[in-house]
């Protein structure tokens, strides 16, 4: 009887690797610091903060400032849609990963933002929010764990949840999972801190540092790492192999019994 072959091992790009997530998280923190400090106290990533400030200005009757926060919100939503459309259209392309296409667009947008003067803050914030949304939609896992590279609230929740689970089960894998989240949070904070310092040196062109970080992530994705695809299928195959082994064993035993009982 033929033995089933194992075709579940493949190679993938490092779009979900920890090192890629590290550069994305530093870039995400820098982008948030950049728009808040240099572009009129608007959050590029933390749209919850923008909604709070938007509602405050509406209640104060300061409708002139409403657009200051409404436009980034709208463009963030459009960025999510754009990344999803790119995924749907280019997911099966072999030469380049669809997430690399997202990074190319993000790098180009952020590079253009560096040329925009302070008078164009509304457009600059819209472009950065659009780019951030594309990133958060495209890069949603690190080593198979769901995460966000441009915001922290979900990472804090997941990190503490994993830490509490480890306290109960003492499962090292769960502890390792929590380290992923806390590491990403620290890297985001590092990016924000670096952004605040670089703004003093480079002003509006600080966003180009984010472009360099994203370019590193883009380059890393040309490296492929070996993975096991569809582990559930591998488990199912193993079960089939075990069943076949038992059947062959039983068949041999029956043949042996029949041979001994055969009259001569």
Number of helices: 9
Approximate shape: elongated
Mean pLDDT across residues: 83
Across the major sheet, the strand order is: 1-4
Number of strands: 4
Rg is: 26 Å
Walkthrough of the structure:
With 264 residues, the protein is mainly alpha-helical. 70% of the residues lie in helices and 5% in strands. The chain contains nine helices and four strands. It is elongated and about 95 Å long.
Task: Give a quick set of tags describing it.
two-stranded antiparallel sheet; 9 helices; disordered N terminus; 264 residues; mainly alpha
Mind sketching the topology for me?
Layout (H helix, E strand, L loop, with lengths): L8 E5 L4 H21 L8 H13 L6 H25 L7 H16 L7 H18 L2 E2 L2 E2 L6 H17 L2 H31 L4 H14 L3 E5 L2 H31 L3
Antiparallel strand pairs: 1-4, 2-3
